[in-house]
Amino acid sequence: MTFPVFHDRLGRTGTALAAALLVIAPSVALAQAPKAVSSAPAPKLVLVDEKKDVGTVPKGEVVHATFILKNEGKADLHITDVKPSCGCTAPEYDKTIKPGGEGKIVLNVDTKTFQGPISKSALILTDDPEKPQITVFVLANVKPFIETHPVGFFRLQGLTGEAATSEIILFSGEADFKPTKVEPPNSYLKATLAPATEAEKVAGKGANQWKVTLTTTADAPEGLLGGYVKVMTGAAKQPELNLAVSGYIKPTLSITPLTVNFGNFEPKADPVKRTVTIINNNLKNEAFQVTKAESTVPGVTAEVVMTDKSRAQVIISVNDKVKKGVFDGFVTVSTTDPAKKEIKIPLKGVIL
Fold it and tell me: Which of 157, 206, 326, 327 fits a 20 to 30 Å CA distance from 179?
């Protein structure tokens, strides 16, 4: 009969199962055990309002929206940071709120670059373990009591040494609208204010219209233009109007590269060469020429090659007559460009 064998196998299986259960049981017990709850006092943030609608505001006004925060916990609440979503918004806030106390966050929103409905937000970071961050919103309808044509900003594009001009027409339904003063953002921009002529007025916008003209001076620096032209409007609802400036002063000549560095080398029979390209951007100067190029470093020569009517190459060569050691000088380039009759290109290198 086989019953003894069966019972023997069953006995071994049961023993194995019992051993496995002994291993698993503590893990299951740990998994099912409730998490320990910290008894340490903690802050508790309560936000009274997450949105503030300030209604209709004149364009250019700085909106101040105040949010009240309460601490209903048993420890100090710390506001660690306030991060606005836009550079137009600057926050002010209480950093610590005592248990049972109140604090505030003020968001200051500059509306000078906006028009129509806007929504600006800020992320508030705290040490409340259950509410480490919250977001608040400022809503407004930005109304330009003074309107402009074209809408937006002054657009200026010009060349070095030349005057670039842009105009904007102002109009308003406010009875007291009468501009008295205009201020450009810097000395190389000149602004003038005058009543618009009949030919300049925007149709359907009334008779009381004014023109602001912005012009660059001959010494305006090359590169991007920016800032705001300030207009004193005389209108009580919007006494000051800021008109943005956008533009670029392009050099009459583009020079690539601006500096020539030969690095470290040993002069050989064949000269070491570098090329500087000069491009004429002034289409009015049809007779453009690079007339001469001279080096101040002995053993370094410069040759001019006009590749076409608007482009020249200055080929700079170092021959075996140059002295060993460091050299540092210039190639002086002469041109027929009125704004850049002479160009100095720095030279550097080390002869081994």
Answer: 157
